[in-house]
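Title: Prediction job returns without error message
Component: structure pipeline
Severity: low
Priority: P3
Assignee: unassigned

Description:
Job completed but the reporter wants confirmation the result is attached to the right record. Sequence as submitted:
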Amino acid sequence: MNVYLLKDVENVGAAGNVVKVSDGFGNNFLIPRKLAIKLVENDMSFFAGRVKKVEADKVVATSKIAMLAERIKNLHLTMKKKIHDKDKLYGSIGADEIVELLKEKEIAVDRKQVEFTKTVKTIGEHPVVIRLSSKLRPELTLKIVAEE
């Protein structure tokens, strides 16, 4: 079955692409979740034109995302938190706190894009991954210091 993707689907394709998927995956997963629409032979020529326009838009978006990834990759963020037992935090660092720190640096990301390699519960330096796209995942360094 050929489908036109309305949204990015990991391991399948990006929004605006026409892809071939199995009938069950298309009918039971993609179409009910409004991630794709089913194409018949008459639709193929219409959506072929849309694919070209989407590809041109993606080139512009990709260059912007690549520039943002470069900015994020070189970032070192510092956060002051209350601690106990010499190096443990009260609670852990959440994605919302990372989003706020990035907002101060004039970088806008969604909290769903923030990924921790492990839970941040101690002082020190910790890597944080920002998922900008399926291929671009720049890593920044978060330094937690004790609050006076």
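Comment from assignee: result matches the submitted record. Residues 2-65 form a domain with the Ribosomal Protein L9; domain 1 fold (CATH 3.40.5.10).
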